[in-house]
């Protein structure tokens, strides 16, 4: 099983910035809400009603009310300008349909994710054989099927910009899924990594509960192409981010985080890639899941 890259506790100062709306403040215009095993992000200045805000990812099934409650407390009655998806796995789109319907806003995702978001294809199934803990063992029961958000679904702009998030650009970071993206802002080197890099050992229920300061590659049980995943981690490390907001785990900042990210990229095959698993032998990187072959 893979091992973690430890990070100094000073890198997780954001966990002490818990607001009344339940979010953790990262910058004046960026916060994240922890929903059990996954995070959603709010981009936009709550004190600037002249600009729309954006929700990044849509959490687990049943979390729509918690997301809307936090949004109302943070932004009042303003609706978002858009929902941006890093990818379409079940724990990132669980509340997507009720949110999009209630807010009547477009949903943007990389075109390679669209088959999983318009009802036409299922993801390659999770691989519990990677081991590592209870969540990995239970992953065989996680849904891989698509959602159908086609009335709201739009492709991310080809020029790399992110709708309603000025200064941000999206980066294609595949491996965990064919159309996975991360978001980066050059001005302050803020990185929303999605699941390309996470800060908890997502395979383990204990590690998810404890949330120690450590860096990991993407969740093992739902990553079908490890060579692409390694290249994506290298790309993100080379950005030299000043802060990192992951899809799973605590946000991190500073020199220790950057050092750990480079260590993760350098030692990816040793510490992030599982020692066993179906996708080590048969990677699946087709956008419609067609490259998957039954174990």
Question: How would you describe this protein?
Answer:
The protein is an alpha/beta fold. It has a single domain, classed as Metallo-beta-lactamase, Chain A (4-Layer Sandwich), CATH 3.60.15. Helix content is 25%, strand content 18%. Strands 2-3-4-5-6-7-8 form a 7-stranded mixed sheet, covered by helices on one side. Strand 3 (30-35) and strand 4 form a beta hairpin. Helix 7 (226-238) packs antiparallel against helix 8. Residues 202-210 and 290-295 have low confidence and may be disordered.
| Strands, count | 14
What is the helix/strand order?
A: EEEEEHEHHEHHEEEEHEHEEHHH
Number of domains: 1
Second rung of CATH, namely the architecture:
4-Layer Sandwich
The biggest sheet, with number of strands, parallel, antiparallel or mixed sense and barrel status, is:
7 strands, mixed
Q: Structural class, judged by helices and strands?
A: alpha/beta
For this structure, what is the CATH homologous superfamily? Ribonuclease Z/Hydroxyacylglutathione hydrolase-like
Write down the Rg. 17 Å
Q: Give the helix proportion (percent range).
A: 10-25%
Strand fraction: 15-25%
Main-sheet strand order equals 2-3-4-5-6-7-8
Low-confidence stretches: 202-210, 290-295
- CATH fold name, please? Metallo-beta-lactamase, Chain A
Average of the residue pLDDT scores = 85
Key words describing this protein structure:
14 strands; 10 helices; 25% helix; alpha/beta; disordered C terminus; 295 residues; 5-stranded mixed sheet; single chain
């Amino acid at each position: 099983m893979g091992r973690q890259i430890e990070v100094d506790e000073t890198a997780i100062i954001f966990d002490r910035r818990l607001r009344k709306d339940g979010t953790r403040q990262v910058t004046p215009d960026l916060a994240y809400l922890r929903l059990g095993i996954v995070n959603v992000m709010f981009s936009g200045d709550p004190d600037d009603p002249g600009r729309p805000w954006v929700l990044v990812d849509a959490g687990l099934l049943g979390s729509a009310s918690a997301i809307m409650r936090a949004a109302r407390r943070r932004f009042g009655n303003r609706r978002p300008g858009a929902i941006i998806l890093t990818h379409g796995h079940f724990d990132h789109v669980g509340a997507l349909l009720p949110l999009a319907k209630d807010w009547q806003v477009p949903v943007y995702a990389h075109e390679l994710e669209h088959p999983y978001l318009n009802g036409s294809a299922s993801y390659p199934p999770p691989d519990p054989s990677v081991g590592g803990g209870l969540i990995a063992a239970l992953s065989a029961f996680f849904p891989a099927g698509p959602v159908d958000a086609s009335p709201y679904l739009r492709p991310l702009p080809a020029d790399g910009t992110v709708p309603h998030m000025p200064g941000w650009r999206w980066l294609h970071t595949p491996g965990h899924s064919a159309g996975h993206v991360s978001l980066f802002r050059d001005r302050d080197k803020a990185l929303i990594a999605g699941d390309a890099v996470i800060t908890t050992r997502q395979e383990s229920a204990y590690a998810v509960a404890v949330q120690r300061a450590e860096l990991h590659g993407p969740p093992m049980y739902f990553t079908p192409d490890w060579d692409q995943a390694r290249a994506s981690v290298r790309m993100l490390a080379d950005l030299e981010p000043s802060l990192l907001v992951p899809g799973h785990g605590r946000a991190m900042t500073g020199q220790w985080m950057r050092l750990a990210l480079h260590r993760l990229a350098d030692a990816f095959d040793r510490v992030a890639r599982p020692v066993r698993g179906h996708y080590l032998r048969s990677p699946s990187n087709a956008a419609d899941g067609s490259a998957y072959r039954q174990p």
